[in-house]
Each structure stands twice: as structure tokens, then as C-alpha cells.
Write a structure and sequence with these properties.
Chain lengths: 354, 354, 354
């Protein structure tokens, strides 16, 4: 047997959501870190070269289900929950390596990585979010994203990463394929895209910029005000570690270029992580606004605390509140709320990694 | 890599069923112990505290499929086999951690366990069944149960277990959530329940009592004589180890409180495990009777033998026969039988654990 | 923890297909070796006996999905992709142990193996194919097979393997069950079959013969010219290792005995593996012809090269071209092509095993 590392996280969350229409209480998962089970390993090929693999499955440890992936970077690439349910799918979702499924070759020149991986345009939203895009505190810039099926990860991707010895500069570029038949039709390039991220980290500073474009055939906007078409995402984030606190911020803009128009979703976050003894206070303000219809806007304030029992095990709690305007109706914790009303979400949980 | 234990059981069974309508022969699984693949581990947190996780997937090693779980402790929480098949699901069921998926914190005060786990009301049926609720010999008290989706396991659960140093007393309490939207409707609490089990084990004696209640909206009984509504399960079991034989018995009563009535299912088992050399003879008589319609009753006699080739590997065989009355039509081993007729099932297999 | 071996292959392939109707470009998987994740182990029982298990899941590492299995050795045993898609299944296929899922007892007398395993009739096609039935070079004798759901693997199987000390002779016999209800209907034996393979390997020589028969109820042929009915497969293969090259060839004939007729598919392959430094050149010519309708025939020429970076990691490329006659329309690499036209496929990838 070659050396394979088996790793994972089991994070269970008691979550309560309150909205103007319905409330909900759940024992759910991933309130602090995403629950997962993974297998990875690296082989030294000599001459500074190495080969490696990484297979990581998301899981819902509250009920034992796995999570679906997306096979073609298009909406059709993941069966909708509703359709799967109609087909009897409740409770039947098996483990897939939806979080990451890659094989890599690396050397002094960098790394080439093939398979399903995070998209470059996602990293600034999660790295520079005190809540790491998990739980009720997740930055509203992600919740309100127009980034489409590849706003977090892309399948069928070919990635290149800069090597680690560039004096603090880092970067990656990723091509991903929609794999449609090349039949000359308008949708033949759907799901195909390219993303780029460049950053610089040194001492207390970390800043990065990303841009991505994904092809989709144009279709007119309906009642939602957002049509289908080429998606462009641009974002920028950074943090400064003052020691007593790590301040972070990011800005994100998604643009959809649809038939007969263009619409943007603009959002930003400011937040901080404040170490206190064996724990950490987390706080953020984030918002997203759509420049369509009555310009729906959602603003979120989140406050949390993580208490580390060890490096691997932590207790945590988060409370978040959203305020909706312009017709927005975002609700937290599985609740539902009427347009232009508020909603509150609450997480309390335990995260154990292995 | 932290220390993860990878464990499992592969149990293959040649099973034959004979009934008055159709017979069947299968190479199936889990005739002696349930086939599974799991990952578990424990971290010492110091001060007598520990954190641990347990992820255990059922599997059908005769064909390689996984098994579905239930996401909300309601009938809708697991896609029916029929609906999944209509949706093309045959052969497509992936691995889920349907058997157990938990994270725990433990100390001198006991253990808190979160996730999907056995329900307290299940333990007396399986612990005090010589066939451990596997194969054609499975106690009829489980087969004829009215316990609903949580009669074996519950998702979204918060459990507490007494510590192990109480002079032989043991116990657990479990709360589980249905996670429905709180919309004021009759079904908003469906799938929510609580179970309790208390026992005492010392020397040759082991006895335990359990009670559980699960909420469901009331609906009238149809042709089955059993409507939908709050389910209450009460059971009691025990064993005495005489050395030359371990005698065991249990009693179980499920009550459904539906619209316009109430119905009980009453059942009991008496049985024994008799060690003989490297093996063990297993024998049981179990029955269940429903107090509705013509009071359908099914009585089962089961006889088996397990031959241990090692601690991990065993050959086994079981023969069981059911006798149906009052309109019951329970059949064994995948056969079908007419109301009030008999059916016979036969298992022969090998169990290998790792 | 007992000793479990965790093993696998992650093989990522950039694949291009060109046909007369549509082309396609994909980042796919398994162009050289089938991607997989597995768990296996062996227990010494003493006296020359051992018990072992093998659980091996196929996976699509380009997108993280698992692969479906077949539960009953019939067409209905695997949900069709179309039906699963209609049910919302895209991206939802979890891991199953579709490649192999067995438990074995072995001794000086051979091995008994239970579960899902390769069928005996498959081995000659893959062992004596320079491309090992992977990627665009896959022997046309497999692509054009009429062998039905068990032409590669069978579920619910009971296999026996000769021991390894028979002076070069090897062999296996496998029974597999369809597990249908025995209701006296025409289809009650569907999916039940038996296969046999016998071979001899010594020095540079390896030859083997296989025959298998699978039951299916008879139905008349429609527009395809091939009805449903009992399937018989006979094949024969061999190789001679000259040192500078390993020459291999095989012949395969599938016969379907349907209502009102019988149809054969005849095919053969000749090929070679030529070691060159750290790599290997692979070349083959294969063809299959159906003796129905206008006798559709497809001929394939494939040429490839594998470059080993280590024992575990290799780069590879293959180009293959098919020529269709008699109405055949086989296309490569996800392309589509009109009847009687050509199609070209191209693989370039990396295979990493662990």
C-alpha cells in the first residue's frame, strides 16, 4: 500500500431560522467548516517533480447523505433537488467527490491540476470572509451571487498554479469545459469558461484579485430581471493582521450579459477575526445589490464565537440578521420571510476534524 | 494523518424463499451481520474529555450498491424504491452513511452525540434477538413494527448517553427533529420525537426498557386498518447467560393514535444462543399481532447455526418459517405468499469482518 | 484496526472526438486505466485457508461522480442515463462498488468468490487488447458486443477459481443469478447465467478460452435486427512475448437466440505492445461485424504511446480511427457520425495510481 492520507471533518450544527412567514429548527451540518471525507496522496517523481491526487466528498452528517456534484458546469449538470425528489431521491444522495477530485503534476515550474476543483473566482469570497462562507454568517456576496454553476467549483477543468517561491506572489488560471456536442448551436459552448486569480501575501498582508468569464447562450430576462448569458465575475479581497485582530474586506461584481440587456450584482464585505484566549470572535457586515427591478438589496450583520477545545475540535456559535429592501426576501436558517422584511439565523455546533 | 480506523463487514448470503405464490433465489447480503464500510476515530481532549466521530455506510455487496438514508424522519425522507426505480434509480444507489453518522463529545458526565444514530427504541429488539435482526430469522417484532421511519434509526438527532461507571446501569435519551417549516400547519412537527432507554447489566443478567414517541399529523385509517398519527413504542427485553445457553426474550408494543381511532401492534420473542465448540446454535420464536381488521398475526420459528472459522470469518445457515393468520401474508426470502398461508426462508452465507 | 489496503487510480484524459455530425472536446477520465477507489484485505485462517474481501468503486474524477452498478444482471438493473436524468440525476451518481464487491474463501483447492465480479467471458477481450479496453483505442470487439448486461461484470455471482499451482493452467467458473420471482413466467430466469474460462500461461505464452450463456426471454427483432433472447458468448485470445514486442490477438462471437431467429456478432483483434525505454507503444486493429440487416461492420485502427514517469504515474496519448460500413455509425470520443462515415478520437492524459 502506498501512503494515502484519509482526512475529514464532521461538523454538526443546531440551526434556528426566524422569518416573517415560517421559522425552522434543524440539526444540520457544516456551520463552521464544511463536513467532508477525503483521500489524498503525493508521490515524489524525483528531479523536483511530484504527482498527487485529491478526492474529497462533501457529506451531510446530520442524516448521512452525500452531496451532488455538477458534471458539465451548466444548470443541467446537477439534477435539481425538486426533480430528484420527484424521482424518489430523498435520502438517496450517495457520496460523490463533489468538493474536489483532481490529479496533479507539479515541479519547480508550478502545478498542473486536472479534474473538479474550486474556481479561481471563489477564493476571494471565502478567504476574506471571517465566516469562511459557512453557516448563517456566510458572506452575502456569495449568497447573492450571479456567478452561475461555476461560482464555487468547476468540473472538467485544467488548472495551472504558480510555484510557491515567487516572493509572496501567487496565482492560478483555470480553464473548464462544458463538454457539449459541437453542433454549431447557440448553446454549444455553455459551461465553458476561464478564470484567473493573482495575489500577494507577505507578513500581515494578503491581497488578491480574480476575474472569470463563463459562456452561456443568451436568453431574455423574465420576471426575475436576470436573463441567461455570458457571466463575468470580478472580485478583489484583502486582509491585514494587526495581531489583536485580523481585518478583512472584499468586493465582488457579477455581470450577466443576456439577450436585450445586462445586469450586475454588486456586493462587499468588511469583517474581522479577533483572537481571545483559546477562541476567536468573528464579525462581518456584507451586502449585495442587484441593479434590476426595484434594485433588491440584502444587508447582513453576523457575529460569532469559536471556542477551540483542541486543534481538531471546536465549539462555535453564530447569530446573523439580514435586512431586505427593494423586494429582496433573503431568509436565514431555513426560514422564509416576506419581501422587505428581516430574518434571523442562529448556529450552535461542534466541529471535529481528523 | 490523524488516526482513523477503517472498518467493515462483507456478508454474502445465498437466500432461498418459498411461498404459496412465488419463490425466489438470491445471492444477497447481511444474512448474519449487516454489511458495512466505516470510518471512525477518537481524540483525547484531556481532563477526561474526548471527541469522536463515526461514519458508517451500509452496502449491498452482492451488487455493489450503497443504501439510502432518511433525511427528515418522515416517509418522504427516503425516496420509495418504486419512485426511485421509475426515475431510473436501479443500480444507482451510492454509498450514504445511513447506518451511523455522528460526532460526539464525551466525559465523566457521559456522552453527547449528534447526527444520525440508532433510535433508543430499536436496541431491545436487536440485542435480545438471537438473530440480531438479520437474515430470514429476524424477529417478527421488528418485521411487523408500526414504529415508522424512526423505528431503527433517526436523523437530525441529539443524544445523551449515561457514563459507563454506574454500577451496571446504562441509559440514553435521544431527541430527533423532523425539520419541517414551522408554518402552523398540522404536519409541522412530523418526524419529531424523543426516545429513552434504561437498562441494567451485571454478570449473567442484562435487562432494558425503552419508550419513544414520534409526532405525525392525524389521518384516518384506510383499507390497512392503520391510519397515520402519533406513534408510541414501548418495549422491554432481557437475557440470562446460563453458560451452556444464553436465554433471551423481549416484548414490543407500537401504538398509532390516528384520526378516529388507535391501533396497536403487539409482539414478543423468546430465544436462545447455545455455544457448541467453535460455533453457536441460534433459535427463536417470535410473533406479532395487529389489533385491527381480522387481527392479522404472524408467528415465526427460526433455527440457525454459526460456525466461526476465526474471530473475523464465519459460515452460517438459518432456516425460518412463518405462519400467517387473520389475513396476514408475511413471506420470507423474497417470496410471496397468500393470506393465511405459510412461507419458508433459508440463508447460507459467509461473514467476513475487517 | 485490521489491515485494510486502500488503493486506487486517478486517470484524467483530455479527449477529442471528430465525426461527420458533431465533434466534442472533454476532460474525461480513464483513458489509460479505469479510475477507481478501493478497499481490500486478506485474513490468514491457518491450514492454508484464507478469507478476503475486495470493494472497488469506479469514479469519474473529471467531475467527482461515482458510477452505477447493475443489481440483477438485466437491462432493468441499471437505471438508464436518460431516465435518471429525467429524474434529476445528473451530477447525483454516488459511489457504488460497481467494479468489484466480493468476499472469498480460498485454500489449496482454489477460491470461492461471492458477489459482484468480472464475468469470465470478459477477460480475453481486455487481457489481449493492447489498450486494455480503455480510452478511444478500446477493442471494437467489446464496443460492438451483443453480450448484454453481463458482458463485463455480473452481480449476485458465485465464482470458483482454480488454485495457482497447476503448472500454468488457470481457470474459473461463475454462476450468476437474475433473482427474479419464480412465478412460472417467461422472464423468470432473465439475467441468470454461467460462464467458464480456461487458460494456460508459461514463459512467453498466454492463451485462454471462454464460453458463457445467459438466459433471457425470447422477443422478436425490431428495426435493429437484434431481438432479445438467450445470449451465448464464445471467445479465445492469446499473446506471445517476443521481448522486443508482445503480440496479442483475440476472437469473440456473441450469439442472440431470439424469437424467430438468431444473430451473431463476430469480431477480432490483432495488436502489439512494444517497449521503448521508459515507455511503451501500443497498436491494434480490431473489427466487429453483425450478421443482420446490411451486415454493419466497424473497423478500428488505434495507435498509442505511454510514457512512465514512475511505476505509479504515466503520461499517455492515443489516436484511433473507425471506419463504418453496412450502416454502422460508431463514433469516437463523444462525437457523432453518419452511417458509413469515419470518426476519429484522440486521448491525452495522466494516470496516477496509489
Amino acid at each position: 500500500q502506498s501512503s494515502v492520507t484519509l482526512f475529514g471533518i464532521v461538523d454538526a450544527t443546531l440551526q434556528i431560522g426566524r422569518g416573517s412567514i415560517t421559522d425552522r429548527m434543524q440539526l444540520t451540518h457544516s456551520g463552521y467548516n464544511s463536513s467532508r471525507l477525503g483521500f489524498r496522496g503525493t508521490e515524489d517523481l524525483g528531479g523536483g517533480m511530484s504527482a498527487s491526487f485529491w478526492l474529497e466528498a462533501g457529506m451531510e452528517n446530520d442524516n448521512g447523505q452525500g452531496q451532488a456534484t455538477n458534471i458539465n458546469n451548466q444548470v443541467s449538470g446537477t439534477g435539481t433537488a425538486a426533480a430528484f425528489t420527484a424521482g424518489g431521491g430523498n435520502g438517496r444522495q450517495g457520496l460523490t467527490f463533489n468538493r474536489r477530485s483532481t490529479v496533479s503534476l507539479a515541479g519547480g515550474w508550478g502545478e498542473v491540476r486536472l479534474g473538479r476543483d474550486y474556481s479561481p473566482q471563489f477564493w476571494n469570497l471565502t478567504t476574506f470572509d471571517p465566516f469562511g462562507t459557512n453557516g448563517v454568517g456566510t458572506t452575502q456576496t456569495l449568497v447573492g451571487s450571479l456567478g452561475g454553476p461555476t461560482n464555487v467549483r468547476a468540473s472538467n477543468s485544467i488548472g495551472y498554479f504558480l510555484p510557491g517561491n515567487l516572493g509572496g506572489f501567487y496565482g492560478q488560471v483555470q480553464l473548464y469545459l462544458g463538454e457539449n456536442a459541437e453542433d454549431g448551436g447557440a448553446a454549444e459552448d455553455d459551461g465553458r469558461g476561464v478564470g484567473l486569480r493573482l495575489g500577494y501575501a507577505a507578513g500581515p498582508l494578503n491581497v488578491a484579485f480574480a476575474i472569470a468569464r463563463t459562456d452561456f447562450a443568451s436568453a431574455a430576462a423574465g420576471a426575475t430581471g436576470v436573463g441567461t448569458g455570458e457571466i463575468t465575475t470580478v472580485n478583489l479581497g484583502g486582509q491585514w493582521d494587526f495581531g489583536f485582530a485580523k481585518l478583512m474586506a472584499h468586493y465582488n461584481r457579477d455581470t450577466v450579459d443576456f439577450l436585450g440587456g445586462e445586469v450586475d450584482s454588486d456586493g462587499f464585505l468588511v469583517g474581522a477575526l479577533v483572537p481571545v484566549g483559546a477562541g476567536e470572535i468573528r464579525v462581518s457586515y456584507s451586502q449585495t445589490e442587484l441593479d434590476a427591478l426595484a434594485e433588491p438589496r440584502t444587508r447582513k450583520l453576523a457575529l460569532g464565537y469559536v471556542h477551540n477545545l483542541s486543534k481538531r475540535t471546536a465549539l462555535y456559535t453564530t447569530v446573523a440578521r439580514v435586512r431586505n429592501n427593494g423586494g429582496a426576501a433573503v431568509a436565514l436558517g431555513g426560514s422564509t420571510t416576506a419581501a422587505n422584511t428581516n430574518s434571523t439565523g442562529f448556529d450552535f455546533g461542534v466541529r471535529h476534524s481528523f
